[in-house]
User: Fold this.
Amino acid sequence: MANDTNVHWHEHSVTRKEREELNGHRGCVIWFTGLSACGKSTVSNLVDHKLHKRGLRSYVLDGDNVRHGLNAGPGMLKERHGEEFAKRFGLGFSAQDREENIRRIGAVAKLFADAGVLTLTAFISPYRRDRDSIRESMSEGDFVEVFVDAPIEVCEKRDPKGLYKKARAGEIKGFTGIDDPYEPPAKPELVLDAGAKEAEALADEVIAYLESSGKIS
Ligand SMILES: Nc1ncnc2c1ncn2[C@@H]1O[C@H](COP(=O)(O)OP(=O)(O)OP(=O)(O)O)[C@@H](O)[C@H]1O
Ligand SMILES: [Mg+2]
Assistant:
């Protein structure tokens, strides 16, 4: 039963504009999406490093790290709160759980952007509808969708965590690209040719986009 009608948004005494003026740049969400092992973590961390070196405020929200904390799975919650609680609140990889995972991350990323931070997110985020609803929740220009486009054959060959191997062996069910769909963005702000180019070059493309779109100068 929803019992949240008495929860009201409280306006901040420091505005986003004031925070952005202090930082000297815009806050926004740079949302990397693509298959496992396409290079989201690698490229977003390179971009983060380049931004940081320029004295800009940036931060990477990364898939596995968030699933260790905010979006912990049932296994992690069970130890602390018992089975029933873990079942209710732990997030797995079903379509509904993936949707909730992305919804929470979108909400956190939006808060980071509001704090004036160049917020990079590195999640497979396979479903178009979930990404679109985060875009719709944000102001025009605040959501930069970056499709890290590497063919599945390339990702499967890289397979640094051995996940494709497990998925092919049937040890992981519902793995994106194998037995769960990946829906590429219809109109991403940027497409990175991640099967052919080096990660460093791709990071430079992201920086160039942020410059040309006036997010950073
Ligand atoms: N452009 C690239 N060219 C060649 N290798 C790359 C490139 N980008 C990343 N890699 C390598 O591919 C592997 C997977 O990269 P990464 O961990 O960044 O993928 P990911 O998209 O974050 O995957 P996941 O969704 O599973 O977290 C790593 O070993 C990384 O070094
Ligand atoms: Mg990653």
User: Anything to note?
Assistant: The radius of gyration is 18 Å. The mean pLDDT is 94.
